[in-house]
């Protein structure tokens, strides 16, 4: 008799649970639906990885691969991380240029990608074992080859082209730059802070820094107003956002920072794209869309790649071929 009386009660509880769950799902859909969000204002901005650079085969690439030894046949005369390549990137339509820095023996920052010199140049060793003037004597195009070493099209053309960070900031006093600290040495973060702190506020607003957790944390502690990104800052923002972002909550760790979001992962973020971008803009968080899974700096480098960028997206687009994508994207903007 007691079981018969409790049956309707259990049925009511199941019905309440069902409608509560359905209401929660509906709430999550409404709160995170891009269809119901206002389209973001503005156009996407282009971030040129290493300026105008020679690109290379990605098959089988690892952290130990010397990419200078597997470039595609050259289509332009520029070498990455040089002043001419940065000038060409801005001329092609880049809104910002990414560059890599390493500490030198005479306490400067050399703009160069690799930790060691042997892959690209006619030198050996690491940058911090040399002064800036010694590094300028190297040929930064010495070992580039597209045919397995039969020819070296840039040999002899890169002598003196490795710039210092000071030279880059002098050459581009108002342009946006993304500085990549290649090491995980906290002392480099401290040194970079000392280098950047004398700059005026309006110049710092056009700069961002990313790299290893330790130097970025040290830099951010010294310069809390500077926009930074590291794997640690990304996790601090995105892990709690993935957990509770369905509610519209944006973690405090996201504020005033920068996110590099692989386009294979982006659709899994709550509210992607319009709601997500709306929330990040409100938190003064800059979003850069990178291609693929985020491995090895893949970019949006072909017209077909751009088809994967959400319509009305107004964040950054990472590209390794600004010479191709810049004119194409700006042409599309003019026809809209």
Automatic annotation (TrEMBL):
InterPro entries: GP_PDE_dom (IPR030395), PLC-like_Pdiesterase_TIM-brl (IPR017946). CDD domains: GDPD_GDE4_like_1. Gene3D superfamilies: Phosphatidylinositol (PI) phosphodiesterase. GO terms for biological process: lipid metabolic process. Residues 60-329 form the GP-PDE domain. GO terms for molecular function: phosphoric diester hydrolase activity. PANTHER family: GLYCEROPHOSPHORYL DIESTER PHOSPHODIESTERASE, GP-PDE DOMAIN-CONTAINING PROTEIN. This is Glycerophosphoryl diester phosphodiesterase.
């Amino acid at each position: 008799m007691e079981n018969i009386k409790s049956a309707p009660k259990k049925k009511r509880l199941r019905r309440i649970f069902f409608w509560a769950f359905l209401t929660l799902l509906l709430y999550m859909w409404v709160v995170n639906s891009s269809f119901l969000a206002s389209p973001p204002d503005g156009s996407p901005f282009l971030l040129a990885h290493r300026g105008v650079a020679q690109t290379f085969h990605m098959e089988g690439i690892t952290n130990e691969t010397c990419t200078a030894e597997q470039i595609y046949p050259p289509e332009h005369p520029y070498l990455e991380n040089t002043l001419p390549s940065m000038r060409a990137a801005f001329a092609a339509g880049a809104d910002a240029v990414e560059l890599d820095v390493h500490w030198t023996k005479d306490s400067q920052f050399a703009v160069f990608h690799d930790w060691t010199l042997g892959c690209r140049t006619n030198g050996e060793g690491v940058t911090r074992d040399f002064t800036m003037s010694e590094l300028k004597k190297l040929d930064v195009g010495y070992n580039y080859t597209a045919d397995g070493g039969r020819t070296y099209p840039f040999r002899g053309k890169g002598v003196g082209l490795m710039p210092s960070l000071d030279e880059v900031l002098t050459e581009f006093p108002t342009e946006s730059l993304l500085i990549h600290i290649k090491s995980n040495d906290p002392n480099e973060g401290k040194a970079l802070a000392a280098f950047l702190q004398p700059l005026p506020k309006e110049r710092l607003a056009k700069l961002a820094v990313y790299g290893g957790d330790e130097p970025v944390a040290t830099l951010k502690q010294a310069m809390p107003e500077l926009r930074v990104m590291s794997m640690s800052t990304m996790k601090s923002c995105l892990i709690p956002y993935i957990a509770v972002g369905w509610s519209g909550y944006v973690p405090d760790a996201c504020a005033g920072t920068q996110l590099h979001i692989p386009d294979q992962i982006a659709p899994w973020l709550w509210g992607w794209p319009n709601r997500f971008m709306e929330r990040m803009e409100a938190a003064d968080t800059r979003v850069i869309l990178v291609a693929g899974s985020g491995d090895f700096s893949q970019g949006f480098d072909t017209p077909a790649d751009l088809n994967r960028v959400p319509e009305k997206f107004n964040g950054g687009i990472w590209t390794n071929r600004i010479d191709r994508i810049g004119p194409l994207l700006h042409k599309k903007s003019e026809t809209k």
